[in-house]
Amino acid sequence: MSRALALLLLLASLAAEAHKPSDSYLHLKIDGAQVTGQWDIALRDLEQAIGLDSSGDGEITWGELRARHADIAAYALARLSLTGDAKSCPLRVTGHQVDHHSDGAYAVLRFAADCGIAPAAIEIGYKLFFDFDAQHKGLLKLEYQDTIQTLVFTPERSLQRFVLAEQSALRQFLSYGREGVWHIWIGYDHILFLISLLLPAVLMRDRRRWLPVARFGDAFWDVFKIVTSFTVAHSITLSLAALGMISLPSRLVESAIAVSVVLAALNNLIPLVGGRRWLVAFAFGLIHGFGFASVLAELGLPRDALVLALVGFNLGVEAGQLSIVAGFLPLAYFLRRGWFYRQVILFGGSTAIAAIAMVWLLERALNMKLISA
Q1: Do 309 and 301 touch, CB atoms closer than 8 A?
Q2: Mean pLDDT throughout 117-139?
Q3: Which of 178, 222, 354, 361 has its CA 20 to 30 Å from the CA of residue 52?
Q4: Domain count of the chain?
Q5: At what angle do helices 250-269 and 349-366 cross, to 10 degrees?
Q6: What is the three-class DSSP state of 152?
């Protein structure tokens, strides 16, 4: 029972983290020695860091935000550094705005820097909010001579270096691929949906009982159908949404993703779909594709290499997904004969996943936070 409790506690911790994580969006454009930038920072994160709601009424007004412009600029720019060929490029503020992203209002900080001479390489240091939020990410879009490269800053990757002459279509492809891998690894709702579908793959249903499959091949082909269906489905909607052909409200998409996790987990407790879980993977994979597309939209698609970036991101998602499957399936097959797998991992895990996803659903549908990170 201690192992079951540990599993439940682990999954409960994911519930706190799966609400849209803290992000900021940094766009740098390099033109010779000059650098111009825009930095979108969530007001909720700034409120936690420096306090913006002076009235204490729970809402941040334009007047309250405007009164703190200097403090916001000082706080943010102290946590961002640009170095061109080992020479510091001093930052200066050029404007303030407000914008809205899918998860709320953001302060928009515009700035510029002068590196003196056109650098061959530029190094970017990013430390925003890392001192109190290890889950925070900075999403960078670096533009240089009609090429765009993207990456994500994390506490482990807070310093990044770019050799500008090496920017190319191949590097763009690899950059978007890397971000696709990273997104699936931190997309706890996508991961738990996939795991919910995979949990019964090493078992078979016989007279209302779960029995272990006899051969690894049986489990492998079940997983193959599920993963292929999920991949085809989310690739369709990811592409259509990223190209602007279909658009759905973010809250609707995120709520529907939570519903998909609930239903996939409950199907393990009360099997209704049975061997047709690949159909569930395809149907809800269409919804998950819109979730992937929202991340790609924030990163931005380069107009000169749109298809290349889209394919790279999608292949990155698949690579990240396959790495999860490769780690899960052999272990599940090894454990399938014991009571621990059926009682704790399948039933206990599915129950915990369904409960967590219900919390996500309430949070996303009602735009509220029930579990604090």
Answers
A1: yes
A2: 91
A3: 361
A4: 2
A5: 160
A6: strand
